[in-house]
Amino acid sequence: MYGMVNKAIQQMVIRDHGEESWEAIKLKANITEDLFLSNSSYPDRITYDLVSASSEHLEVDAQLILIEFGKFWVLDTALKGYGGLMRAGGKNLKEFLLNLPNFHTRVSMVFPNLIPPTFEVHNITDHSIDLHYITHRPGLQNFVIGLILGLSTMYKIETETKLIATRDSEEGNGADIFHISW
Ligand code: HEM
Asked: Which domain holds residue 13?
């Protein structure tokens, strides 16, 4: 993944727990780089190792870290660094979710080597959507839940998100399916 992802984890850890915690987490994750370059590609392993090491060092469940990171990604990384792109995504939450399948196509203009997830929207009503999340990357379902929480804060709307089928089930058929209602 692009270095901006690891850099965002770093920013979140330092904001919430300070520089010393970050140095300890880097050591635990065997990271030798002094800093991550936003525009360079790093092996996915590094990102997963940073989440596990944060979980161990901070004694916080890794799934909770993924949820927090999803919120941080929308509200800090994306809105502060790419506000124009985010606002162009929609004038309300429903519109943003409807446009989500195309969102990373625009991100790819800034990050040409991006390997983004695929999103599809189904069963669209006035107050709910089923979001299908397709990726080769394991274990990031709670990151998606955090991203949706971040979008809910961005659009000042309360939402409920339920994982109703997983990629390995017959109903999911390769996709994790989230039912999002508001
Ligand atoms: C300006 C805003 C955004 C930028 C710049 C961005 C960029 C990225 C980058 C760089 C990655 C790592 C993949 C790689 O480096 O190949 C990524 C992954 C991902 N993005 Fe975005 N993204 C943005 C917004 C969003 C939003 C709004 C969502 C969903 C609500 C989202 C969902 C995801 C997910 C789930 C992944 C994890 C990778 C996977 O599942 O395979 N992103 N994005």
From this structure: 3-60
